[in-house]
């Protein structure tokens, strides 16, 4: 099946219906949103409180380590996590990391 954009208001209705216990078939009849899309929207809403993935403000900082990123997440967002979780999450989203240059400076 082809992917299509689902308007935010339609997602809002589908999520409200799903959280109210309405059956996925009935949600599809009223909103034309598939059960899979509804489950994904509900999952995102439960995790983040948002209906759409928010674009990150990409200020390029390629020299940050996972440890520094972990500390920033804790101080800014109050999220306590491990460097392994950060690495896996970034990799799932398509980010790659530059390997550190281990050359000794003269």
Task: Give a verbal description of the structure.
With 106 residues, the protein is an all-alpha fold. The protein has two domains: 8-48; 55-95, no CATH class. 53% of the residues lie in helices and 0% in strands. The protein contains five helices and no strands. It has helices at 8-19, 24-31, 35-48, 66-77, 83-92. α1 packs antiparallel against α2 (24-31) and α4 (66-77) crosses α5. The longest helix is centred in the middle third of the chain and has 14 residues, at 35-48. The radius of gyration is 19 Å and the shape is elongated. The model has no long low-confidence stretch (mean pLDDT 83). This is Transposase Tc1-like domain-containing protein. InterPro entries: Homeodomain-like_sf.
Main features:
106 residues, mainly alpha, elongated, Homeodomain-like_sf, Transposase Tc1-like domain-containing protein
Distance between the termini: 58 Å
The portion of residues forming beta strands comes to: under 5%
Q: How much is the radius of gyration in Å?
A: 19 Å
| Low-confidence runs | none
Return the string of H and E elements.
Answer: HHHHH
Number of strands: 0
Dominant shape? elongated
Label the structural class.
Answer: mainly alpha
The helical percent reads 40-55%
Biggest sheet overview: none
- Count of runs of 4 or more consecutive helical residues: 5
Overall pLDDT level: 83
Count of folded domains: 2
């Amino acid at each position: 099946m082809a992917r299509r954009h689902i308007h935010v208001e339609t997602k809002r209705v589908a999520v409200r219906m799903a959280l109210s216990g309405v059956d996925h078939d009935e949600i599809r009849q009223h909103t034309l949103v598939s059960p899979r899309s509804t489950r994904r929207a509900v999952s995102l809403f439960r995790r983040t409180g948002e209906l759409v993935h928010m674009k990150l403000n990409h200020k390029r900082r390629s020299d940050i380590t996972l440890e520094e990123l972990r500390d920033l997440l804790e101080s800014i967002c109050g999220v306590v996590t491990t460097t392994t979780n950060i690495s896996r999450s970034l990799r799932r989203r398509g980010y790659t990391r530059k390997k550190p240059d281990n050359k000794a400076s003269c």
